[in-house]
Design goal:
binds NADPH dihydro-nicotinamide-adenine-dinucleotide phosphate, Rossmann fold, alpha/beta, 17 helices, binds (2Z)-2-iminopentanedioic acid, 5-stranded mixed β-sheet
Amino acid sequence: MIDEKLEAAHAEVLRRNPGEAEFHQAVREVLECVGPVIAKRPELAREKIIQRICEPERQLIFRVPWQDDRGEVQINRGFRVEFNSALGPFKGGLRFHPSVNLGIVKFLGFEQTFKNALTGMPIGGAKGGADFDPKGRSDDEIMRFCQSFMTELYRHIGEHTDVPAGDIGVGTREIGFLFGQYKRITNRYESGVLTGKGVAWGGALVRTEATGYGIAYFVDEMLRVRGETIAGKTCVVSGSGNVAIYAIDKIHQLGGHVVACSDSDGVVFDPYGIDLAVLRQVKEAERRRMSDYIAYRPRATLRAPGSIWQIPCQIALPCATQNELDGRDAAMLIENGVLAVAEGANMPATPEAVRAFLTAGVAFGPGKAANAGGVATSALEMQQNASRDSWTFEYTEKRLAAIMAKIHALCFETAERFGSPGNYVMGANITSFERVATTMVALGLT
Ligand code: NDP
Ligand code: 2IT
């Protein structure tokens, strides 16, 4: 329920942003949590903080023309939504996926603002991308697309202005082409303008692993509070991209047993545990499909897309995309005895699913807390770039683990303080909202 004092502001968001269902969903979740903060701090209403926080500072939409390998001209639409720079330069990933539109980018930028605040690092929130589908495209086509995309984007970004990174469809290869074009156009070797770079050219060790590792650390913290550990638990991870692969890696390191993962074509169930080396070979090295994994693992089976939450498990990690786990999936997981669910993707659980988990007393880690390890390590990459330094894997991973433990503790304590013990959704939204709102007041009317 949204507090009645916030209803008018909420109605205004719906009116001003018609048809943007995902953006409405993300705003609603935050507004449902922050009523008690507004009640305690009348200056936030006076300063119209809710209204300002829901309106992006700047929204960019641009044409991205490029030529495919057959010489045919292709046109895509590029986006960058610079949502909030109260806490630092705009920061957030770029998504290349045919489903990308302004509403999706706004939901992601809004979410990113609060996630980044939770990390405690000096970074504002943004998101961008294009409705470009990288599937089946050659390296040359990807390069031409990235060069065209950056030919417009470069004028809006910079190490002190806006610092993009990867997201769905954007990994080290794409960041390389984007960085190369930025460097060429600006005639500046400005490492801190993008994160998720290759280690040879300014990238931070652990950034590749960071989101997935961070999720496992967050689950470990949630279970520890309940006197449990990951060791020996059966786990299911949706997706098989960057986030999923390294969540699986760390869950295995911590003694858990991941038996399934997926892509948009199907679900692989491997009762002896997902073989990480095979998974990385198929998905990272060869850029093939989960169905190709089966050839290497005779006991693994392929199931229908979307069926992953029917597999019994104690830990469930949705790591593919928004709204991939609905109320019925949640009911099935609960019936099968799930103990902990953490959102590796941004907003993968629908509001009905979140409600079901909270009602059933499942430890539920919302994305803005559970998957914040990626952007936190991006901020560590920015630190290294600013000082022209590079840290070891061990040191960087220790920093990541400490950041995740801190985020967990903050969310846990805030939920207790506001009378909702164990509710990390309340904890994450209130903690991050207070940080952004307090700073916005301090910076005056901007
Ligand atoms: P990748 O592109 O590396 O992998 C995405 C995975 O999700 C693929 O397996 C893909 O399958 C699957 N997927 C994507 N869209 C859909 C869809 N519409 N339906 C079914 N499956 C889908 O992306 P990431 O691993 O980087 O991102 C995954 C999620 O994690 C996203 O929600 C992203 O916003 C979030 N995230 C990412 C961070 C990062 O550092 N990369 C940080 C924090 C959150 P297929 O190949 O079939 O499309
Ligand atoms: O959703 C996310 O947090 C990301 N895609 C990572 C953003 C970043 O700037 O590292």
